[in-house]
Specification:
CATH architecture: Alpha-Beta Complex
Radius of gyration: 15 Å
Number of helices: 4
Largest sheet: 4 strands, mixed
Structural class: alpha+beta
Number of strands: 9
Distance between the termini: 40 Å
Order of helices and strands: EEHEEEEHEEEHH
Shape: globular
Strand order of the largest sheet: 6-3-8-7
CATH superfamily: Nucleoside Triphosphate Pyrophosphohydrolase
Strand content: 25-35%
């Protein structure tokens, strides 16, 4: 398996259409608009599974995140990318029927430009991070996200999405 920097990703236009395919390294270096998938894992009692990213990640290493996800592969559907990311990062195998689509958000900063599709999966299954992208996990009541976020160093994308997360998951 090659380096993550060599993976191919789709560069998209403002309308979400694919314009070209580049390596992940090129996408990051030029801060090109790309697709993104994020899946919240929520327990039946309402707690949200949060995780700290590995220290080797190319974006936001060692910071805390409230959703699992990443960049879909070339030609990969949003649903299948969400299922794949859950298996890789959380060790959770689900069918696309377990996904509930929450919405689409866009983010454009000096560090990232993406169009993200957000999902939630509700499960009490044990999670077993499989690929080393997750350093550790915890669980936080959705209503306690703000208090939790005050004591953890979060990905900037998460800070921008806290209102959406509380609305979607509360």
């Amino acid at each position: 398996m090659g380096s993550p920097a060599d993976e191919l990703v789709e560069v998209i236009g403002p309308d979400g259409s694919v314009e070209r395919v580049v390596t992940r390294a090129e996408m990051r270096a030029q801060n090109l608009r790309h697709r993104n998938i994020a899946v919240f894992v929520q327990r039946s009692d309402g707690r949200l599974v949060v995780h700290q990213r590995a220290d080797w990640k190319d974006v936001y290493p060692s910071l805390w995140d409230i959703a699992f996800g990443g960049v879909p592969g070339v030609g990969e559907s949003d649903d299948l990318a969400a299922v794949r990311e859950l298996a890789e990062e959380a060790g959770l195998d689900v069918d696309t029927s377990a996904l509930r689509r929450l919405g689409v958000r866009e983010r454009e900063t000096d560090a990232v430009v993406w169009r993200g599709v957000f999902y939630v999966v509700t499960t009490d299954a044990a999670l077993h991070p499989a690929d080393g992208e997750v350093a550790r996990m915890d669980q936080v009541p959705v209503g306690g996200l703000r208090a939790w976020s005050a004591t953890h160093e979060l990905c900037p994308d998460v800070v921008a999405l806290l209102d959406d997360a509380e609305r979607w998951l509360g």
